[in-house]
Each structure stands twice: as C-alpha cells, then as structure tokens.
Amino acid sequence: MPRIGIIGGSGLEKLLQSSSPVRVGTPYGPAPLISIGYIGKEEIAFLPRHGPEHDLPPHKVNYRANMYGLKKLGAERIIATNAVGGINSEYAPGDICVPQDILDFTKSRAATYYDRAPVTHVDVSEPYCPELREHIIGSASVLQNKVWANSILAATEGPRYETPAEIRMIQKLGGDIVGMTGAPEVFLARELELCYSTICFVSNRAAGMQQKLSAKEVMEVGADVMPRINQIIEKTIEIIPKNRNCACSKATDEARV
Question: What is the C-alpha to C-alpha distance for residues 47 and 35, in angstroms, rounded to an integer?
Fold first, then answer.
C-alpha cells in the first residue's frame, strides 16, 4: 500500500520504476488509471489528473474520485504539481512556487464529500500541510533550486484563460499565481485527512501581463522545468518521515456538528 501519492501531468510517471496500472473504483466514479511503482525504495501511487491521454479539461476532472482513490490505495501524503500563470511581477516563467494559501474562484465543481449529514465544517486555516511544504522547500534548497516559498495560488474555473480584469482583481486580493486545478483538490485532501502540498511552475505571465497566452507556451516551459520538479519530488520522498507530525490526520476531529 503506497503511503505517498503524486498527482500531475505527463512526464511525472517516468519517475516510477517497475510500475503497473491499477483501476480503482470509488463512490464518486472511477479514478483514472493509477500507476503503482517505486521511487528509490518507496512505493508510490501516481495519478494523472487529466487522464492518461490528457483528455479531461480542468473543470471536468473528477477530483473527488481522484482523491478518494488515492486514499483507498493507502496514500497518506499527496504531492501535486500545477502549471500556473505568474501574477506577482517578481515571478518569471520557469520559476517554481510552493503555495501556502489559496483563493478559490471555481464555480461548478463538486467541492466536498459532505453533501449530507453529518454536517461537517473542515478548518482550512492551513490548507497545505506545513510539514510536507517544509520538506519540499528544503529539498529544493538542497538541490539549489530557487523556490517562491510563500505564494498565494488563485484557482479559476477554466478551461479558458482569465481576462486581464480578472487578473487585476486577483492581484488586488493578494494572489501571486493563478491556475485551473488547485481547487477543490486541496480541500478534498483536507476532508480526507491527507497531507497535501503542491509544486507549481510558472508557465507564463498572466493575462494582461504579456501580449497573449497559449497552451503551446505552457507545454514548452513545462518540458523545460519538469526535470527540476522531478528532482525535487525524488529528494522530498527520500526525507519524508514514516510518521506524520502535523494536524492533517485530525482535520475532521472537531468539524462535525
């Protein structure tokens, strides 16, 4: 049973050694094929967020099935990756960010496991696991990768890019980066009492901050940055302790009415 799950796009599955695909059923529908393999001596579950062929747009991803499927396999900690647009003027394409908080502007997604009794209000004062964040940031530092360690991620609905006016609004609210897959993933992990953190790479400057946006640019920057992200993930997995020393595993202890 893998205790660590990785969520991301194409390229990350190459991290795994001797992997095999498994299909996991959940009360929310099937998760995409999940690859079980090894990174070093650690057994890992890798889930392709957009499907093996990258055919699911961000607003159609079955986030509830994804997170539930990883927990069902035994995962306790989740390391995710996201491509994001840079809003903070100091951030440049190719930069790596580890968010500490999130602004949720998604609209139509199933965002909770608690649609019925017991009524449950999960605390998200720390939406990202502080222990996992610390290990990711530390790993990046050891590898001499520059990381923006306290970013605020804004999650938008997609699949279109944001308008310049929307980006100006997010900037005024404190957002440093913007992407389409950050929510509800982080909140669902919290409800399942999973440790969750994400590694974001800036693929472009956000709308209104460069002449135009294109998926081609995102893919090109992603291909250049992914080797560095892979190294950070590998190093992080080496140093993650067996036991969790954070509050994530008790997120619902005082949440139910």
Answer: 7
Three-state DSSP at 135 gives helix
Bridge partners of 256, per DSSP, are: 120
DSSP type of residue 146 = -
Question: What are the start-end ranges of the H helices in 77-184?
Answer: 130-142, 164-172
Domains of the chain and CATH, by start: 4-250 (3.40.50.1580)
pLDDT given for residue 9 in this prediction: 77
- pLDDT tens per residue across span 72-84: 999 999 999 999 9
Contact 4, 218 (CB under 8 A): no
Give per-residue burial for 92-108: e unless 16+ CB within 10 Å, then b. Answer: ebebbbbbbbbbbbbee
Residue type, 138: G
Q: If we measure between CA atoms, which residue out of 166, 165, 2 comes closest to residue 75? A: 2
Distance CA 70, CA 48 (A): 11
Q: How do residues 185-223 score in pLDDT, each as one tens digit?
A: 999 999 999 999 999 999 999 999 988 889 898 889 988
- pLDDT band at residue 10 under the 50/70/90 scheme: low
Claim: this prediction has a pTM higher than 0.85 = yes
Per-residue pLDDT tens for 104-146? 999 999 999 999 999 999 999 999 999 999 999 999 999 988 8
Report whether pLDDT(61) > 70.
Answer: yes
Under 8 Å between Cβ of 174 and 102: no
Rounded to 5°, the CA angle 138-142-144 comes to 115
Angle, CA of 29, 47 and 220, to the nearest 5°:
125
